[in-house]
Amino acid sequence: MNAPVPLIEVEQLEAWYGRRRVLHGVDFAVNAGEIRVIMGGSGSGKSTLLRHLLGLQRPVSGRVKLFGVDLREASERALLDVRKRIGVSFQGGALLTSLTVGENVALPLREHTTLDESTIRIMSRLKLEVVNLGGFQDLMPSQLSGGMVKRAALARAIVMDPRLLFFDEPSAGLDPVVSAELDELILRLRDALRMTIVVVTHELESAFKIADTITVLDQGNILTTGTVAAVRASDNERIQDLLNRRPREVQVDADAYLKRLTEEEA
Ligand SMILES: Nc1ncnc2c1ncn2[C@@H]1O[C@H](COP(=O)(O)OP(=O)(O)OP(=O)(O)O)[C@@H](O)[C@H]1O
């Protein structure tokens, strides 16, 4: 049997803001074909990790490899090649309000390919169909509901057929039914389009539904990576706090909390 191929490899990643360390030597790998959910309380370092995975923030130390390419050592050309193979759907959707839905979805094709106009239009419409927005290409973003904006942003993120898709807080601001629809869509992308998907989310229900594996971050450290069942069964107190929505802040006094926020490291 072939060993699983990691599309993402992170070794001993550290991140600092000023004199404060917010990622403490994180090791992290994601194999092809899996949906990995990154979970953690507010301020645990999820967004910082995501920004490093996307190459938007350079590691102070440690390394991040996507498709085997070390982002710190790669040439501009190699980085561009990596970027063409990843899709990103950020919180809020971030559609350009002055463009139609179809034009928004087509943007990456215009930027990264030399395809002719009619091919671009067909590919954009196909991706709108994948996210159940077939026929909505001529609407403006302001005419869409919150859930539809998310799906349109997802269509744009997958228009180049990325092997690796990053999804930041898919459920944020959505009602439970719309959020559940989006979960189904994420599962479909993995199964039908064979994408590898990394999702950052606060939503436990959504995480348990879509994840093949979950990585739990806490104060810049990975507490565990495992299957949904393994994470649920963990006897780690912090993990159980998160799963039972017991915030850490209520368990520490104000002085200790302030000290942690202003902590300086040599
Ligand atoms: N630009 C920045 N400058 C200074 N500190 C920052 C900056 N961005 C994040 N931090 C701090 O780094 C720590 C990790 O933040 P990060 O945004 O990665 O966490 P998070 O898990 O994504 O949180 P949330 O779920 O609230 O978005 C937090 O303590 C945060 O205050």
TrEMBL record:
GO molecular function, one term: ATP hydrolysis activity
UniProt xrefs under Pfam families: ABC_tran
Superkingdom of source: Bacteria
InterPro entries given in the database record: AAA+_ATPase (IPR003593), ABC_transporter-like_ATP-bd (IPR003439), P-loop_NTPase (IPR027417)
Domain ABC transporter: 8-244
Record keywords: ATP-binding, Nucleotide-binding, Transport
KW ATP-binding (keyword) present: yes
Protein name per Swiss-Prot or TrEMBL: Phospholipid/cholesterol/gamma-HCH transport system ATP-binding protein
Organism: Dokdonella fugitiva
